[in-house]
Amino acid sequence: MNLHSSKLASLGFDAFFQQQINTSDSPAHLFPVRVMNVQRSGLHLTGENIDRYYELLPGDFQSGHTVGDWVLLDTSSQRIVRRLERKSLFKRRAPGTGRREQLIAANVDTLFVVSSCNQDFNEARLERYLAIARESQVMAVIVLTKSDLTEDPQLYVRRAAKLMPGIQVEAINSLDEQSLACLDPWLGAGQTIALLGSSGVGKSTITNTLLGAGRIQTRDIREDDAKGRHTTTSRSMHQLPGGAWLMDTPGMRELQLADVKAGLDDVFAEISELAERCRFSDCQHEKEPGCAVQKAITSGKIDQARLNRWRKLVREEAFNSASIAERRASDRALGRFYKSVINDKKAQKDR
Questions:
Q1: CA torsion angle for 316, 319, 320, 325 (degrees, to 10)?
Q2: Would you say residue 68 has pLDDT above 90?
Q3: What is the dihedral angle through the alpha carbons of 43, 47, 51, 57, rounded to the nearest 10 degrees?
Q4: What is the pTM of this model?
Q5: Distance from first CA to last CA of the chain, Å, rounded?
Q6: Hey, what CATH class is 6-83 in?
Q7: Where are the domains of the chain?
Q8: Residues 6+ apart with CB under 8 A from 45
Q9: 87: closest CA among 64, 65, 106, 113?
């Protein structure tokens, strides 16, 4: 097993993953491969001299594979042995009323948070994506599409730049290859880029332009409200001419936060830092005496609308995180119950 091959390096395999594999202990038939595409029934795996579709077996689902993962493939048994530890992981609470989590992408180096210079631009939605990026410790860049269709794209750039300290914002025309040149600093060989944004903002168009070919299906937006029609239905990785890997993911209209408290503190740093100066540790930042946040609102240092968005996201994150923790505890209890039933049946059979 050659862990230093140029093929693996081109796929993003670096020292972080290499140190997880002890070559003296690993059999020669175990190979690191990357998950390039995820379907309901299986995974597309690529590695050194390996490029194939792998049909998942029932036991494989326990690992929760997602696009971008690195796994060890046993070529003798054609089974996935284990998944390597992730650099980063994007996940969300699955849509609907259930409490399960849905994996989005793993081992991302840079996240392009995509919105557009029209009615789709929404600060609250962008703040959600930024919180997820910060929680995963992934570099985030806000990419604003359709800059050619508005008279003042810089108006949107200024609004986006206020959403997080030091955030990089780029306004582009997704159809113009030269316009996308501003993204080159994040598109080095072996780098992995993920695109997140609601349907219709131009994620697939960006992918097509960077690829230089119409390999990803796109659909027009609705004229009445500029909302997009869902295009991408599976998560895939596409190699760009310069060697970077671009992930294309489904549009997410219902992105619910969970387990991203630290990410919210980073995105809303000016509020979270002031909250620590309030007189009461359980201050709700409404009418309590000695509230540093309300003092900043009165003086104009903080916008009331941004505070309202912060409150909403904090409440949502706390509720979803508690729900998921409850579900995890319930699943563990159910697992122990099933195990006890099996053990009881075995004991009765042995009598």
A1: 160
A2: yes
A3: -30
A4: 0.77
A5: 49
A6: mainly beta
A7: 6-83, 89-248, 261-338
A8: 33, 34, 35, 36, 51, 52, 53, 54, 71, 73
A9: 106
